[in-house]
Every structure is written in structure tokens, then in C-alpha cells.
Design a protein that fits this description.
This protein is an alpha/beta fold and 335 residues long. The protein has a single domain (31-332), classed as Bacterial extracellular solute-binding protein, family 7 (D-Maltodextrin-Binding Protein, domain 2), CATH 3.40.190. The protein has helices at residues 6-28, 44-59, 80-86, 118-126, 128-134, 178-185, 199-205, 215-220, 246-250, 254-289, 299-309, 312-320, 322-333; strands spanning 31-36, 64-69, 91-92, 142-152, 154-157, 171-174, 190-193, 211-213, 229-232, 237-245, 293-296. The strands form three sheets. Strands 2-1-3-10-4 form a five-stranded mixed sheet, with helices on both faces. Helix 2 (44-59) links the parallel strand 1 (31-36) and strand 2 (64-69). The termini are far apart. The mean pLDDT is 94. Bound molecules: (2S)-2-hydroxybutanedioic acid. Residues 38-39, 45, 77, 95, 150, 175, 196, 213, 217, 238 line the site of (2S)-2-hydroxybutanedioic acid.
């Protein structure tokens, strides 16, 4: 007959107790949500990520812990999408220029001179067409949770850019977007794809001569220190789609998912309200630094940039879809 010695019994009991304690702990351990991004904290996206963390940890105390990794410190922009799909990070907010392998429709946001102002961007993003893009990548495992603004992009270089011909032959850093490559080819400049973390050094060493960014990205990456001129062209948009891994998101307890969704909606409203002021503040900081002249275009000069860049639309309208482009254009005139 099998007999347990007192020692073996004690040992078995303590193992069971340890196992139970561990199971109880993991049942109550908070869900860790890693939110990774590539910009500085004092930017619209950086502030949005921190607000999301704050509200989630306040309202879901003990249930959720949000770890925010800014400045490409966990994943750079070449790797973050892959990491999201692998489940190594749970929320990211890539710029809308970084979705071309996942959704052709999202390329619409890169079309130069598409939106008259940020109010038009708001209207399009809130429209059925804009909202439809958030769920357009579910089959690839990506769920869109909302849009966050950064703002309109400005051209920068070490020579003054008044007209498209001034950009001829210059090397411009672009995000990983074919539309943006074509945009610079349209003014006979040379686009170079480069990850965000490398832009400052690229400009400093002359690997590239110019770039396009909203003021908040220029200032927070100190690009103004290596660019003598900024042309306030407002020629294109740099906004974000906040996305999560579909399987991770659908696997969250329903109450947690519902609350996180509410928080995300609230944070999106706040980010989109603050972004313009943040960019204007950084424009002033650049002026105060006296490193860089900011060029304001006349209407005629700006029209020349628009005429030179707009033919890019034709190249992509098949992929993007004319209905989507019409919906975006309609957002310009709506009140
Ligand atoms: C860029 O690469 O220029 C931007 O996408 C960076 C960002 O996230 O704002």
C-alpha cells in the first residue's frame, strides 16, 4: 500500500498552497497594456498616451495597468506594427502614412492639399467614410480605436522654399508612404524613406536636406536646430489612427473593454482639442530660438505648390477609391 510520510505530506500541501496562491494572484493581477509610440511626450500623441494611462488606471484601478513607451524606446516605426500583430505591444498610434500595407483606403490622408483645415479633417474622420476606415483592417488583426490629430505639415530645408522649383533636386525625408514619395517626385525632389528616430541625424549629416512635419514634431525633435527655413505650407496632414490587436482587444473582459473604449473616446476628443494649440506653441518656441526663419506663402505661391503636387491624386485614386476621395472633399465645404 502507498503510504505518505509526514514529510512528503507537508511538502505536497505546501506545493498546493503555493499553487493556489499563485492562481489567486494571477486572477487578480492587472491586465498590462503596453502603449508604444515614436514621438516625444510633449506632443499631441505623447500627451494622449499619458492621458489614456491616467484615466485607465484611475477608472479601472487594480484591473488595468498601462505602460507607455515614448520616443521609439520600445519599438521604432519600422517595427511597431509587426510588434502589435505579434502581441508584443497592445496599442500603438502610427501616423496615417504608415498603413499602406494594411489598408489602401487609409492612404487618402496623405493626398497633398486634400483638406482645407483641421475642421474639415474632423468632419471627414467623423463621417461614415472616415469611421469605416477604422474597421477596415479587422481581417488583418488590426482594430482602429479612433483618430488623433497632430496637425498640418510644414516643409523645412536649409534653403528658402517659396515655390516648387526651389525644392528641385533636394533630398526630402519621407515616412514609409508611396503617396508621399510621389508628392516629392511631383516637385522634382528626391524622397528618401527614413524612420522617425533617424530624421534629426539625417538632416544634421546631410543624408537628407529637408523634411515635412507639423511644428510639434519639428520642435520636439530639435529639427529646427538643423533646418534654417520652414515654409508654412500646410500642404498635407499628419494625424494618427490609434489601433489595437483585434484578438487582444476582443479577449478583454467585457466591462474592461467597454470602459477602455469610453476612455479612448474621451481622450481622442481631448487630444484633438489641444493639438492645434500645442503646434502653435511650438511654432512660437521655434521663432524664439531664432534658429529658423518661418516663411509665409502668398496665395499665388501656395497655389503653385498645390498645382504641382495635386496630380499625385490621379495616381492613387484607383487604389483609394473615388467615393472616398469625394467624401473627403465634401468635408471641406460642410459647415
Ligand atoms: C513621422 O514618422 O514623421 C511621424 O509619423 C512621427 C509621428 O508619429 O508623429
Amino acid at each position: 500500500m502507498f503510504k505518505l510520510t509526514a514529510k512528503a505530506l507537508a511538502c505536497a500541501l505546501s506545493l498546493t498552497i503555493a499553487g493556489l496562491a499563485q492562481a489567486a494572484e494571477s486572477a487578480t493581477a492587472p491586465i498590462v497594456i503596453k502603449f508604444s509610440h515614436v514621438v516625444a511626450e510633449h506632443t499631441p500623441k505623447g500627451q494622449g498616451a499619458l492621458l489614456f494611462k491616467q484615466l485607465a488606471e484611475e477608472r479601472l484601478a487594480g484591473k488595468v495597468k498601462v505602460e507607455v513607451y515614448p520616443n521609439s524606446s520600445l519599438f521604432g516605426d519600422g517595427k511597431e506594427m509587426e510588434a502589435l500583430l505579434l502581441g508584443d505591444v497592445h496599442i500603438i498610434a502610427p501616423s496615417l502614412a504608415k498603413f499602406e500595407h494594411y489598408s489602401k483606403g487609409v492612404q487618402i490622408f496623405d493626398l497633398p492639399f486634400l483638406f482645407d483645415d483641421m475642421a474639415a479633417v474632423d468632419r471627414f474622420q467623423a463621417s461614415p467614410a472616415g469611421q469605416g476606415l477604422l474597421s477596415s483592417m479587422e481581417d488583418k488583426g488590426i482594430t482602429g480605436l479612433g483618430y488623433w490629430h497632430n496637425g498640418l505639415k510644414q516643409l523645412s530645408a536649409n534653403k528658402p522654399l517659396y515655390e516648387p522649383k526651389d525644392a528641385r533636386g533636394l533630398k526630402f525625408r519621407v515616412q514609409a508612404s508611396q503617396v508621399l514619395e510621389e508628392q516629392f517626385k511631383a516637385v522634382r525632389a528626391n524622397p528618401r524613406k527614413m524612420s522617425f528616430a533617424e530624421v534629426y541625424q539625417g538632416l544634421q549629416t546631410g543624408v537628407v536636406n529637408g523634411a515635412e512635419n507639423p511644428y510639434s514634431n519639428i520642435y520636439s525633435q530639435k529639427m529646427h536646430e538643423v533646418q534654417k527655413y520652414i515654409t508654412e505650407s500646410n500642404h498635407g496632414l499628419l494625424d494618427y489612427m490609434v489601433i489595437t490587436n483585434t484578438k487582444f482587444w476582443n479577449g478583454l473582459p467585457e466591462d474592461v473593454r467597454g470602459e477602455l473604449r469610453k476612455i479612448m473616446d474621451e481622450v481622442s476628443i481631448e487630444v484633438n482639442k489641444q493639438a492645434e494649440a500645442l503646434n502653435q506653441g511650438d511654432k512660437q518656441r521655434i521663432l524664439d530660438a531664432k534658429t529658423t526663419e518661418i516663411i509665409t506663402l502668398t496665395d499665388e505661391q501656395r497655389a503653385k505648390w498645390r498645382d504641382a503636387m495635386k496630380p499625385v491624386w490621379k495616381k492613387f485614386e484607383g487604389e483609394i477609391g473615388t467615393d472616398l476621395i469625394k467624401a473627403a472633399e465634401a468635408a471641406n465645404s460642410a459647415n
